């Protein structure tokens, strides 16, 4: 999927779109039972966007009931594996066939460059659904060792009704990481997308239904976290919540599970990932990795390389290289402009938070090396230039809290022990990286950094075969890879005794 369309092409195509903003429940679009709606503001220019159903607990009840009926009936989980696979493969094909529309919906909601939506987000969403479709007819159960008079089957069975609650930064990708394995395993799903980014989820559900997924197996309820996500997480007939979002809300989700039916919980949460650069490393490669690792998606990435932990003797040289790479390769522009590599932040309030954290970091002693300022204000949209704040101490809030914008903080170190200690001095443990030519040291760091993924001399490389998720307050449970299927299954023992 590539496209060389002009900005004018995309402007016209978006003007002709009329995005669906109703829930998708039991195979049909439905308004909120209360009739209420809310309007999404477009981050690219601050204008009013789509109108969406404002879900509340009664809408969640309807979606959970539909999901439960579909699960109990066996209409999906008892289908022949080959037939299930064909339906999910068709779904992936339909995502590809509707790639431009899905990309426009994503860009309208999130403000990310249209070509990133098309060539990264939509592509990876389709690939994710395909990956799990292909696993459906390759799953085997087990026979446990017993004496000759018994046979014990260990069956891997779907859990039931899964509530998925997702964030706004990579809606299509993260939705597919949950939908793919949950549905392939035979579960029913009620998805509550972020209130900022619901359009692509509604379209995904309609495409799944068109592909042949039975009514009720995949439902979408749109709305705010407190009004829609909370009743889903508290619901007595939901068996599991698969959540991606902030650590703060992740803690609430654990509480809701405990207060209701002890539903199981999987959490993909925040990060403040270190990228450790030693003076002996290839500084050009490190600069490129640090810039792309932190600034891609305008820094709105949970595993972004937000803390540059750099050997003091090369800090200034490395920052100069990061600035050069950023200026030459990472164009910030209106998201419909095909040159844009990064574009708007999600909301005005979020932009203000990012800029406020930068100001506080500078007031606390950090030095603005370049960027990290509001730009393109004349568009009405929410744009912050990528930038570096240098000479930061790891104790400062700017080094400890998620900024979730295109702002890299640089923390100098003098010894290897100090570098590792700073890298691990965080409540998060999502990802990390080390740059060095010393392979013994690289090995020590790959073992020593306490995070779900550690890269050596690169950043943000992955594929569907590699599990993704965090240690510590970055959560637990893994998305992607064959292991994600297990998250959506239970083990059931069937013991048969013979005469
Ligand atoms: P958020 O936690 O504010 O919201 C995430 C989802 O939770 C949204 O759908 C929201 O409506 C819902 N929600 C909010 N309050 C709720 C409540 N009380 N009960 C139930 N649901 C509620 O996060 P966000 O701002 O959408 O996304 C950014 C955060 O997500 C960052 O912290 C980022 O690091 C994290 N994230 C993590 C990963 C990962 O894989 N680890 C991936 C992407 C984003």
Considering the chains and any ligands shown, give keywords for the structure.
alpha/beta; Aldehyde Dehydrogenase, Chain A, domain 2; seven-stranded mixed β-sheet; about 20% strand; 16 helices; Aldehyde Dehydrogenase, Chain A, domain 1; six-stranded mixed β-sheet; globular; binds nicotinamide-adenine-dinucleotide; about 500 residues; 2 domains
Task: Give a description of the structure.
- By secondary structure, the chain is an alpha/beta fold.
- It folds into 2 domains: 8-269 and 475-493, Aldehyde Dehydrogenase, Chain A, domain 1 (3-Layer(aba) Sandwich); 274-467, Aldehyde Dehydrogenase, Chain A, domain 2 (3-Layer(aba) Sandwich), CATH 3.40.309.10.
- 40% of the residues lie in helices and 21% in strands.
- It has helices at residues 7-15, 57-73, 81-97, 99-110, 114-135, 171-184, 199-211, 225-234, 247-259, 283-295, 315-329, 348-363, 397-400, 416-424, 439-448, 483-487; strands spanning 23-25, 28-30, 37-41, 48-53, 142-144, 150-158, 161-165, 188-192, 218-220, 240-244, 264-268, 274-277, 307-311, 367-370, 374-375, 383-384, 387-390, 407-413, 428-429, 431-435, 453-456, 471-472, 475-476, 489-497.
- The strands form 7 sheets. Strands 14-17-18-13-12-20-21 form a 7-stranded mixed beta sheet, sandwiched between helices.
- A hairpin with a 2-residue loop joins strand 1 and strand 2 (28-30).
- Helix 4 (99-110) crosses helix 5.
- The longest helix is centred in the N-terminal third of the chain and has 22 residues, at 114-135.
- It is globular.
- The mean pLDDT is 97.
- Nicotinamide-adenine-dinucleotide (NAD) is lined by residues 165-169, 174, 192, 194-195, 225-226, 229-230, 233, 244-246, 249, 252, 268-271, 302, 402, 404, 430, 470, 474-475.
């Amino acid at each position: 999927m590539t496209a060389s369309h002009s900005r004018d092409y995309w402007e016209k195509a978006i003007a002709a779109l009329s995005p669906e903003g109703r829930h998708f429940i039991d195979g049909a679009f439905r308004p909120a039972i209360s009739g209420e709606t809310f309007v999404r503001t477009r981050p690219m220019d601050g204008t009013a966007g789509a109108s969406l159903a404002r879900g509340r607990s009664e809408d969640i009840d309807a979606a959970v009931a539909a999901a439960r009926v579909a699960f109990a009936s066996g209409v999906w989980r008892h289908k022949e594996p080959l037939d299930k696979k064909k339906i999910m493969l068709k779904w992936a094909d339909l995502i590809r066939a509707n790639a431009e529309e899905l990309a426009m919906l994503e860009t309208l909601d999130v403000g990310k460059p249209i070509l990133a939506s098309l060539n990264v987000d939509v592509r990876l969403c389709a690939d994710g659904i395909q990956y799990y479709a292909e696993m459906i007819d390759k799953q085997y159960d087990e026979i446990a060792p017993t004496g000759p008079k018994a046979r014990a089957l260990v069956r891997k069975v779907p859990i039931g009704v899964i509530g998925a609650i997702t964030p706004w930064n990579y809606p299509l990708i993260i939705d597919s990481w949950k939908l793919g394995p949950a549905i392939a395993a035979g579960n029913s799903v009620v998805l509550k997308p972020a209130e900022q980014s619901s359009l692509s989820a509604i379209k995904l559900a309609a495409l799944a239904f068109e592909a042949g997924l039975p009514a009720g197996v995949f439902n979408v309820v749109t709305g705010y976290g407190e009004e829609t996500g909370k009743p889903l997480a508290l619901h007595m007939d939901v068996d599991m919540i698969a959540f991606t979002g902030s650590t703060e809300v992740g803690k609430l989700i654990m509480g809701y599970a405990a207060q209701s039916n002890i539903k199981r919980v999987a959490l993909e949460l925040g990060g403040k990932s270190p990228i450790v650069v030693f003076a002996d490393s290839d500084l050009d490669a490190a600069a490129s990795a640090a810039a792309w690792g932190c600034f891609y998606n305008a820094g709105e990435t949970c595993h972004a390389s937000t803390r540059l932990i750099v050997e003091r003797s090369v800090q200034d040289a490395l920052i100069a290289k990061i600035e050069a790479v950023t200026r030459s390769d990472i164009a910030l522009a209106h998201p419909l402009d095909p040159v844009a590599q990064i574009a708007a932040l999600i909301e005005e309030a979020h932009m203000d938070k990012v800029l406020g954290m930068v100001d506080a970091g500078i007031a606390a002693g950090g030095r603005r090396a370049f960027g990290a300022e509001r730009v393109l204000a004349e568009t009405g949209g929410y744009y912050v230039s990528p930038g570096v704040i240098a000479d930061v101490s790891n104790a400062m809030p700017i080094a400890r809290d998620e900024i979730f914008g295109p702002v890299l903080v640089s923390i100098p170190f003098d010894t290897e022990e100090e570098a590792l200690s700073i890298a691990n001095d965080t409540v998060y443990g999502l990802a990390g990286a080390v740059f060095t030519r010393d392979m013994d040291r690289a090995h020590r760091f790959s073992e020593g950094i306490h995070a779900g993924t550690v890269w050596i001399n690169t950043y943000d490389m992955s594929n569907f075969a590699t599990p993704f998720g965090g240690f510590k307050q970055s959560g637990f449970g893994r998305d992607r890879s064959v292991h994600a299927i297990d998250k959506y299954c239970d083990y059931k023992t069937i013991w048969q005794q013979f005469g």
